[in-house]
Amino acid sequence: QLQPPPSPTQSQLQQQQQRQQQQQQQQQQQQQQHNQQQLHQQQQQQLQQEQQEQQEQQEQQQQQQVLQDQPPQSAAAAQPLAQQRSEAKESRADEAVDEVTRHLMEARDKIEAVESEFAQIMNELAAYGRKQPARLPDALPTEPLTSPRSPEYFAIGTPGGNRMDSLTSLSSGRTSPANANPLPNQVNEARPFLLVAAPGGGDAGGGGGARLPKTH
């Protein structure tokens, strides 16, 4: 049979408390030592910075004193350092300008290539347009002419037809006997018409041209 563990005695409890206190004290001591070390390091760094600043100030003062004590020729001999620095700055600026110029040249080349391609396309379109047949003019209107002041057109054909012919078509050539004397019922009464008189059997060219008297 299992027996319960014996309960800790008072002496054991005291020992445990003492051990915990000792551990806490050790941790506190270690933390204090660590803080002291950090503080010491910070102080040393500050001292080093102050010493460096003092040394730099002393060196600057010495250089100024040397330049003041030297004759003008020696002071002029000390100028090449500043000149070298300015030349280095100028060279860097020139390099930057060259880089920008190179980019601009590349962009210009691309633009010229696009322009040449566009011009080639336009030339091809123009050549294609020249190869195409010319566009025919629009046909004359086929609506009936009702104004009596427009006798330049007249209709010949079946009643109600809409064929429009010009006078110039009758001023040359022969006029057939069938069309020489159109009947009144073959002409649209709402439009003016012309009667073609062809003497001598219809030869319109033999008598100095056909006469075209207007009839209403």
Automatic annotation (TrEMBL):
* Protein name per the record: Uncharacterized protein
- State the taxonomy lineage: Eukaryota, Sar, Alveolata, Dinophyceae, Suessiales
- Residue ranges under compositional bias (Low complexity)? 9-84
Start-end of Basic and acidic residues biased regions? 86-101
Q: Where is the composition biased (Gly residues)?
A: 199-210
Superkingdom assignment: Eukaryota
The record's region (Disordered) falls at 1-101, 133-216
Extent of Polar residues compositional bias: 165-188
